[in-house]
Amino acid sequence: MQLEIPKKLSAFVEQAHMIAAEVFRPISRKYDLAEHEYPVELDMLASIMDGMNEGDAGGGAGAGKLKQQKSEPSGRQGSGVRNGTNMSTVLGLTELCWGDVGLALTIPRQGLGNAAIAAVANDEQLKRFKGCWAAMAITEPGAGSDSANIRTTAVRDGDHYVLNGEKIFITAGGRADKVVVWATLDPSMGRAAIKSFVVEKGTPGMQLVRLDHKLGIRASDTATITFTDCRVPKENLLGSPEIDVKAGFGSVMQTFDNTRPVVAAMALGVGRASLERTRELLKERGILGGYERTLLGSTAAEAELYRMEADLEAARLLTIKAAWLADNGIPNSKEASMAQAKAGRAANHITLRCLQLCASVGATQTELLEKWARDSKILDIFEGTQQIQLLIIARRLLGKSSAELR
Predict the structure, then answer these.
(1) 88 vs 109: CA distance, rounded Å
(2) Is-catalytic flag, 383?
């Protein structure tokens, strides 16, 4: 088993780290304080990121489409083991979020909605939506962690679907040029009737209601949008328009198999940033040495840092595995949830504990530690809370359906 970063991706990772260090870090506090102000510095990154994601029709944050292999479950078919878009996405975002999570979420054409397009769009749609900036609208006032409770409706009317409903907590919802909206074709049919639709910004009946004030990731806008008799061309439905009760809503849920490792990668970045800065600050004050002492012979602060570093490394390996499985056409739903559950929880603990270890220095705005602690919380919530991830993992391990294990 080879766990090193593939050589072909080394330059990509270095470039992402350079962007984080030279662009994100210097303006991180500026846009944390200037919530809802668009980071104009990111415009110059758009073409660079487009080049880094060349060949990925779904966009940078989306990762690649997972295609089932018919044989060789190890992933070692004739073409060999692949390290593709999914791997490069998690490695790149880990570095970018070492710089700033909110800024990483608001790079043009790198929206989470691009993940939905990459996951389930057909070839014509991939070509048509290439280069777009797509947000993703799933959560509703009455449907939070359980996506099956979605009540936004989509009714077929000739060559269009008519959407009605309200969506909240839409990342980049005010800035993206398209929004991927989850809606049900028939509320009485349950999960199977849920489909995703690409809605162009400015479509009549689509209204941006507000931008929310948040605890963290303030550089990224989070929107509430309503749909009132909003007509969407039938060609903008992603995946099959047929309601397949046996298949459920697996096609739209496949979006999460792409985005959960992405969220885990974000958590890895901010967790690593906190650990590195804490080690620097404690070393400057003579509280911390190098790695020359064993765990039992180290100070309490050193021992705690050792444990947190080990926790983050475990999360990193889970995240890499989830991305590798997707790149090699192997179903990764369980592993994607494991990666996000572990990384989200680890980042929350690490950022808060690092803030405490640095005492008053960590709590001031002269350091980014307090900001990283605030930013990390969302990484244990969006794309499925910690509790939802553990429930999904339990279902996969026990072979239970959502109806059998709730």
Answers:
(1) 16
(2) yes
Which class is 134-238 in CATH?
Answer: mainly beta
Separation between Cα atoms, residue 13 and residue 16, nearest integer Å: 5
pLDDT in tens, 48-105: 666 655 545 444 454 445 444 433 444 444 456 788 888 999 999 999 999 999 999 9
Q: Find out whether 43 and 90 touch, Cβ atoms under 8 Å.
A: no
Residues composing the chain: 406
Mean pLDDT of 110-122: 85
Look over the chain and give the mean of its residue pLDDT values, rounded to a whole number: 88
Q: What is the pTM of this model?
A: 0.91
Extents of the domains making up the chain: 7-128, 134-238, 250-398
For 145, which DSSP code?
S
pLDDT tens by residue, 338-356: 999 999 999 999 999 999 9
* CATH architecture for segment(s) 250-398: Up-down Bundle (1.20)
The per-residue pLDDT for range 312-331, each reduced to its tens digit, is 999 999 999 999 999 998 99
The answer to whether residues 383 and 341 touch, using CB atoms and an 8 Å cutoff, is no
| Separation CA 266–CA 357 (nearest Å) | 22
188 φ, ψ to 5°? Answer: -75, -15
The whole-angstrom separation of Cα 361 and Cα 386 is 30
The tokens describing 180, both together, are 């991927």
Q: Which of 95, 140, 370, 383 is catalytic?
A: 383
Q: Which residues contact 21 (CB under 8 A, 6 or more apart)?
A: 99
Closest CA to 63 of 129, 116, 137: 116
User: By C-alpha distance, which of 180, 173, 156, 157 is closest to 62?
Assistant: 180
Answer for the pair 349, 308: CB distance below 8 angstroms, yes or no. Answer: yes
d(CA 309, CA 318): 14
Q: Look at strands 160-171 and 206-211 and give their pairing.
A: unpaired
- The CATH code of domain 7-128 reads 1.10.540.10
Query: Closest Cα partner for 147 from 72, 250, 43?
Result: 250
Judge if 7-128 and 134-238 fold alike in CATH terms: no
